[in-house]
Amino acid sequence: MLIPASAVGVLCFLYGFFTLVGDAHSKDVCENHNDIILCPRCDIKGCKYEQLGQTCTFVRITHLFDNGAAVFFAVFMSLWAVIFMELWKRYLSKITHHWDVTNFDTLEEHPRPEYLAKLSTVKKKKVNFITGVNEPCVSFWKRRVPCTIFSWSVVLLLIYRRIATFLTELGLLGIQDITIHCLDIDKRKWLLRVYKKWSVHKKGQCAHENHAPTQWESDYNLINQEELGLFSEYLEMVLQFGFVTIFVVAFPLAPLFALLNNITEIRLNARKFITFLRRPVAERVKNIGIWYRILNSVGKISVITNALIIAFTSSFIEETFYKVFISPDGSLNGFLNFTLSDFNISDFPGDLNILSEPDTSVEYCKYQDHREPPTANNKYEYKSIYWQFATTCLMFVFNFTCLVFIISSWICWLIPDIPKSVNLQIRHENHVINDMIIEHELRKAKYLALNEKKKKKEPGWKIQVSRPKVSL
Q: Three-state DSSP class for 40?
């Protein structure tokens, strides 16, 4: 799925590269008005005046990413995210059917073998009301109460450490000594436990020095995968999906770099899971859980963020607004002066640290905004054209999000969640199961009817009716 997104991103970048020569805004900055004095930008060292021509390189680089194709690419990536999620649901339906977890419920999952081994010593049994099976009954006082006390003791120990630290800071050194003594005891126990494990491992090595280790012994020496081992992998993919969709307008080459990263990471993860980590314990699940909702939410947020980036940080809306409402001939002639406002140098505060002074004949400097000139009565306040432009930006954000959400809803309705082949196979399996159930019930009814007839013929004869077993 990243291949078409990467291709479109590269095409948008090439469009900006080939239209750079004829870009009117870049020509105005680099050739026609490069001697304009810009107002000083201040940093830690101080404030420094610059000429507009010094920003020529930055303007040209910006045009490579911020051009007329940005809006098309934003719409494409928003719809790409929707199509990606829909195709993922179709693929998920295939693998869930292949692994027979379509109707899987975590509440019906079988207990762990370790837990069943512990229950094998339990003598007390009780009939389960739901399944009707005679199951071992776990004693409340022997198993649950000790576990609860142990859990609460750990919590109380953590609270005690916080309280001891707080009292120590107040000057109660006796509490600190007690805490340190308790921690020293815990450290000694931990070191003793580590020494015992090391001694057992050492004895095992000595015993197997004469022959090569078996495969399971080599696998045991690998790094044990944590319980949340795949959490970081899921999180990494979600973050990448967010960067590819949310901020893709600012950098159209992001899908290409994500594709290259995934190609490399597939091999690195394969080597990591095969050669460095132990084989993880398989667990039956129906889907990726909460991660799908996160990805779906990120895809919806990306529509709004892309619209805001185009409206308030890109020059596309401003150029279009100037062509439609300001320019007499519908061109970008005079667009640079439209985006700049004047500021009187004498209005700067006296304590401003100016590192470089402009020419003595220069009275005004330029800055990017839509404000009144210094000669106006309401100087440096927003012009009326600014509020019209801001309204246009908000209208663009509203229309863009509505259009994309409408098209996204239509795509979700058009693409079914389950492929037709999988749906037909599921219906065929359900039909076979229903036929088996009907056949079983029919044989059961005939068997009971035959017994009833024999009872009527031989009143003193009694038959033990057993429930036939059928494996589906």
A: strand
Place of tokens 């596309």: 316
DSSP string, 342-394: EEEGGGS-TT--EEE---TT--EEEEES-B--TTSTTTTSBPHHHHHHHHHHH
User: Does the pLDDT at position 131 exceed 60?
Assistant: yes
Instruction: Output the pLDDT for position 287.
Output: 84
Distances (CA, A) of 118 to 111, 114, 122: 11, 6, 8
Max mean pLDDT among 43-57, 159-173, 235-249 falls in: 235-249
Rounded to two decimals, the pTM is 0.67
Distance, CA of 67 to CA of 236 (rounded, Å): 30
**E-strand spans in 283-353?**
340-344
Q: What 3-state DSSP class applies to 235?
A: helix
* Distance, CA of 279 to CA of 464 (rounded, Å): 51
Phi, psi of 43 (to 5 degrees): -135, -160
- Write down the mean pLDDT value for the chain: 78
DSSP 342: E
Nearest to 5 by CA among 80, 84, 87, 88: 80
Cβ atoms of 315 and 335 within 8 Å: the answer is no
In angstroms, the CA 6 to CA 412 distance is 23
Both tokens of 187, joined, read 């450290």
C-alpha 446/C-alpha 440 separation (Å) is 10
Q: Could you tell me if 249 and 74 are in contact, meaning their C-beta atoms sit under 8 angstroms apart?
A: yes
Is residue 36's pLDDT more than 90?
A: no
Q: How many residues does the chain have?
A: 472
User: Which pair of structure tokens corresponds to residue 8?
Assistant: 């479109």
What is the distance between the alpha carbons of residues 266 and 264, in angstroms, rounded to a whole number?
6
Cα dihedral 332, 338, 339, 343 in deg (nearest 10): 150
Rounded to 10 degrees, the C-alpha dihedral 327/329/331/334 comes to -50
What's the pLDDT band for 460 if we cut at 50, 70, 90? low
What does the pLDDT read at residue 173?
A: 42
**Which residue type does 432 have?**
V
What is the per-residue DSSP string for 119-179?
HTT---EEE-TTT--EEEPPPIIIIIHHHHHHHHHHHHHHHHHHHHHHHHHHT-HHHHHHH
What is the Cα–Cα distance from 251 to 105, expressed in whole angstroms? 43
DSSP 334: T
Angle CA(466)–CA(467)–CA(472) in degrees, nearest 5?
150
